[in-house]
Amino acid sequence: MQEQLDQRRRAAERVTIIGAVLDTVLGVLKILIGVIANSSALIADGIHSLSDLLTDFMVVAVLRLSHRAPDDSHPWGHGRFETVGTVALGVVLVGVGGAMAYDSVSLLFAVEHPPLPTWPALLAAALSIVGKEWIFRYTLKIGKKLQSDLIIANAWHSRTDALSSIVVLLAVAGAMAGVWWLDALAAVLVALLVGKIGWDLVAKSVTELVDTALPEDRVEELREQVLSVDGVINVHSFKSRLMGNQSLLEMHLQVAPHLSAAEGHYIGDNVVCKLQNRFDNIGHVIFHIDTYDDEIHGDVFCPVMPSRREVSQHLDATMSRILGENPDYELILYYHPEFIDLDIKASPQFHQLLSHTGLSARELEEQLREQLSSLNWFRKLSLWLPPQ
């Protein structure tokens, strides 16, 4: 699991670093040409590109932290750091959208018209659009492949730079054509789009932080896979949540009541393997083995049946009354919330005692049932004698 997380982190870091290099080149280029071509919009767009470097550095730092192996302080892993990073990046997008909208509205109501830019600004804006659109598509593809909301968020951040470059392109073209207010109006629309993208990312990440369940169709797929495992009678108390790109599951698996604890645990381990083999984003799976459907009792259910020691004391006393002494035997208990079934595997000593008392195995079994029937927890008993 950790090796897969390390591979995912390296792939995410690689695409982020490529984007950081592109942001640096485009940011410096747009600022220089903006100064030469008399375009304040292009200068602002260049500063916007350089500001993306801060988010790129933040993404790399969060990726390295979120993909660390579990430790004593974070036994579930560090996947939540990726979610928190996505929230922070979404907030940045909302802030960028708000700042763009404010500046654009200010331009619409400005008393003095800004100076007209020259054609090199058009070329720089077009180059920025192509570069940022390419890195957006490349980063988005990698983010979806890695199922990383953080990388997807950073991809959309790159798209905001491409959109702002489109605004610059329209602003330059409109100003050169005499329609000076066109750039401000387009910037307002883009700002609203950027803000919505940021808000959606924040909302999605917050639902993860408050442990919202997986979508119903996904849960149904998981349940069907669990029920397909041999030995699983039913699955209930099924809980799911996300941590980063990993799905965390908890469930109660109902198996046949007379299975051994070892076989029940094997069935549970088999369920985990089947889930992780079919779904590549399954992280921790916690299962509880049930021999009955305990969901009807609710979360406050506590067992009120007697312990093994108490049951053995009742059985020993009954054996002594019937046989005159207490022979060796193996006792197997099958608990239900309302009763207990007993299996008694007798030792060879029983044959000698039965011959002394003149009882058959069936008669002994019937007397044991009769004397234990007054106990409100007793339902049935089976006596198994070894061959003579």
TrEMBL record:
<keyword id="KW-0812">Transmembrane</keyword>
<dbReference type="Pfam" id="PF01545">
    <property type="entry name" value="Cation_efflux"/>
</dbReference>
<dbReference type="InterPro" id="IPR027470">
    <property type="entry name" value="Cation_efflux_CTD"/>
</dbReference>
<keyword id="KW-0406">Ion transport</keyword>
<dbReference type="Pfam" id="PF16916">
    <property type="entry name" value="ZT_dimer"/>
</dbReference>
<keyword id="KW-0864">Zinc transport</keyword>
<protein>
    <submittedName>
        <fullName>Cation diffusion facilitator family transporter</fullName>
    </submittedName>
</protein>
<keyword id="KW-0410">Iron transport</keyword>
<dbReference type="InterPro" id="IPR027469">
    <property type="entry name" value="Cation_efflux_TMD_sf"/>
</dbReference>
<comment type="similarity">
    <text>Belongs to the cation diffusion facilitator (CDF) transporter (TC 2.A.4) family. FieF subfamily.</text>
</comment>
<feature type="transmembrane region" description="Helical">
    <location>
        <begin position="161"/>
        <end position="182"/>
    </location>
</feature>
<keyword id="KW-0472">Membrane</keyword>
<dbReference type="InterPro" id="IPR036837">
    <property type="entry name" value="Cation_efflux_CTD_sf"/>
</dbReference>
<keyword id="KW-0813">Transport</keyword>
<feature type="domain" description="Cation efflux protein cytoplasmic">
    <location>
        <begin position="214"/>
        <end position="292"/>
    </location>
</feature>
<feature type="transmembrane region" description="Helical">
    <location>
        <begin position="84"/>
        <end position="102"/>
    </location>
</feature>
<feature type="transmembrane region" description="Helical">
    <location>
        <begin position="122"/>
        <end position="140"/>
    </location>
</feature>
<keyword id="KW-1133">Transmembrane helix</keyword>
<dbReference type="InterPro" id="IPR050291">
    <property type="entry name" value="CDF_Transporter"/>
</dbReference>
<keyword id="KW-0408">Iron</keyword>
<keyword id="KW-0862">Zinc</keyword>
<feature type="domain" description="Cation efflux protein transmembrane">
    <location>
        <begin position="17"/>
        <end position="210"/>
    </location>
</feature>
<dbReference type="InterPro" id="IPR058533">
    <property type="entry name" value="Cation_efflux_TM"/>
</dbReference>
<dbReference type="InterPro" id="IPR002524">
    <property type="entry name" value="Cation_efflux"/>
</dbReference>
